[in-house]
Design a protein that fits this description.
Elements (H helix, E strand, L loop, with lengths): L1 H8 L6 E7 L3 E5 L11 E8 L4 E11 L10 E6 L2 E6 L16 E2 L4 E8 L9 E10 L2 H4 L10 E5 L2 E5 L4 E3 L6 E3 L4 E3 L3 E5 L12 E7 L4 E7 L17 E6 L2 E6 L7 E3 L4 E7 L10 E8 L1 E2 L8 E4 L5 E2 L3 E6 L3 E5 L2 E3 L1 E5 L12 E4 L11 E5 L11 E6 L4 E4 L5 E4 L5 E2 L9 E4 L1
Parallel strand pairs: 1-3, 14-16
Antiparallel strand pairs: 2-9, 3-8, 4-7, 4-9, 5-6, 5-8, 10-11, 12-13, 15-22, 16-21, 17-20, 17-22, 18-19, 18-21, 23-25, 24-26, 26-29, 27-28, 27-30, 31-32, 32-34, 33-36, 34-35
Keywords: Autocatalytic cleavage, Calcium, Complement activation lectin pathway, Disulfide bond, EGF-like domain, Glycoprotein, Hydrolase, Hydroxylation, Immunity, Innate immunity, Metal-binding, Protease, Repeat, Secreted, Serine protease, Signal, Sushi
GO molecular function: calcium ion binding; serine-type endopeptidase activity
Main location: secreted
Amino acid sequence: MRSFLIWSLSVLHLIKAEAIELTDMFGEIQSPSFPDSYPSDSEVTWNISVPDGFRIKLYFMHFDLESSYLCEYDYVKIESEDQVLATFCGREATDTEQTPGQQAITSPSSYMSLTFRSDFSNEERFTGFDAHYTAVDIDECLEKSDEELSCDHHCHNYIGGYYCSCRFGYLLHSDNRTCKVECSDNLFTQRNGVIHSPDFPNPYPKSSDCLYRIELEEGFFITLQFEDNFDIEDHPEVSCPYDYIKIKAGLKEFGPFCGEKSPGRIETKSNSVQILFHSDNSGENGGWKLSYTAIGDPCPLVEPPLNGKIEPSQATYTFKDQVVISCNTGYNVFKDDVESETFQIECMKDGIWSNKVPVCKMADCKSPPELDHGFVTFSTPHNLTTYQSGIQYSCQHPFYQMVPNVTGIFTCDAKGVWMSEELGTHLPSCQPA
């Protein structure tokens, strides 16, 4: 019957609605005329706003309203962002299931509204309510669920807000949450090496543009070999719109590459390669890794000279490979009328050797020096003076004798020097007997 009367009389009675704006960090809200009875046909809304980074906590110190089924007569309604957080009515002493009691209501954002409404008639005296609100700090580091608002690496909360920071080696992006790397000045000049995305095999950083340059001497050709473990953010319909690798080698371009299929082996045919890796501000992909090698034009196979050898001895030689030529014991390298122990040649970029292979010539001690008051006898036919040839010095007997008293035997050694086991390179002398 009362519900029918409320509907009927609502045509005759217009409830006067009032809105009150509250912007302080804390405050008190009381029903009209509190602690006296609140008036009938009343509607008051308190709109509470605090700064961003805070939410609002509301609790009641006193609550005494008319009780009704589903609080359809008098009530307090608490809302935030078009969401009803709670609706209360009744007396704390008898209607505890509909009254706030010790419950505190916390808004999900920095805005909350509290609306008090009374109908046209109260059958008893009700004193209303006394509520208090306060702004409480939001710990964004624990509660931010929106990916666009979270920190890439480290989150630091402070009263009223938060800020992000990055691990060592990273830079904070202009969006103040994304951690990027400075990777635009990577130069590789060795003939082989390994290159990979930052933090590989962990997810690569967002919002980064990495440039890796391989610069080798003209004449080398660089080959790239990507590992099978390849993971760059992809799109099912558009080719690499987010993250990608592009490769530039001379006038050629390879890519863009993305997805989970490795580019495999790439023969660039160039001595200069640029690898550009781009990532946008989202995604958690593992990245990529490659190894590179460089070879040049091949040179003809080198044959060792007669009585000689080459090091290293291999099936093929390419640009910048070097070969050392040496001779067997008792022989010396002979090139352009100059004798030496070794001779080095290098494979040039046009596929030819830097010099011709020299010859190995047997060591020659040449004619032995003469001995005053003495003479020399050759122990080899034809008076040979080459390696391992032998001679013997003697004095004119009986007028002279050899000092010191030695055999006087000398042998031509591997270096082309007459050598005695007793005197080394020194000659004996013939002294009067």
